[in-house]
Amino acid sequence: MGHTTTDGPRIAGLLLAAGGGRRLGGRPKALLEHRGRPLVEHAVAVLRAGGCEVVHVVLGAAAGAVRERASLPGCVLVDNPDWEEGMGSSLRAGLASLAAAGGPDPDAALVSLVDQPGIGADAVRRVAAAYRDRGALAAAAYDGRRGHPVLLGADRWADVGASAEGDRGARAYLREHEASIVLVECGDVAEAYDIDTAEDLAHLE
């Protein structure tokens, strides 16, 4: 019998959770409470429920405290010492971690942000379903505007990582390859707000 074949592509979750919450008085976003749990736990659960068996979590601000206080069993935790440079460095660290991981290679990464708790498993599932091959490029859209999560086929990781700078993450790469992106409307099942300011904390439960 030997190895088992899975029924579909292997899509890994890549959670960017390194932000320092500068406009929140320096509270790391990963540890903000939502429904009685740190936001990072909630975000990992969403990726898992959406079909990502493997989840890599990029930590930065207060990484030690996040490791201590958040329960993240089965996740690969990636420390990004350069997290203050912005989201680009976290995306690079996460994609490098996925590429280096042992075991069967993922066919794609589904990138999500820790501070968007309004985006649940339905949106993750929808965007994951847009996978066609290892060159896949897809993103959730909210009333036609591109947002997260973003699906990056494994063949694109090196180029995305090379172009990820500052706080733009994959934005420059996605703009260049706009014509190839499959937009998956998720506005009916998710809300794409960020938790950036004290006012935004009202979204947390």
UniProtKB/TrEMBL annotation:
Entry-linked InterPro entries: MobA-like_NTP_Trfase, Nucleotide-diphossugar_trans
Gene3D superfamilies in the cross-refs: Spore Coat Polysaccharide Biosynthesis Protein SpsA, Chain A
Domain MobA-like NTP transferase: 13-178
One Pfam family here: NTP_transf_3
Protein name: Nucleotidyltransferase family protein
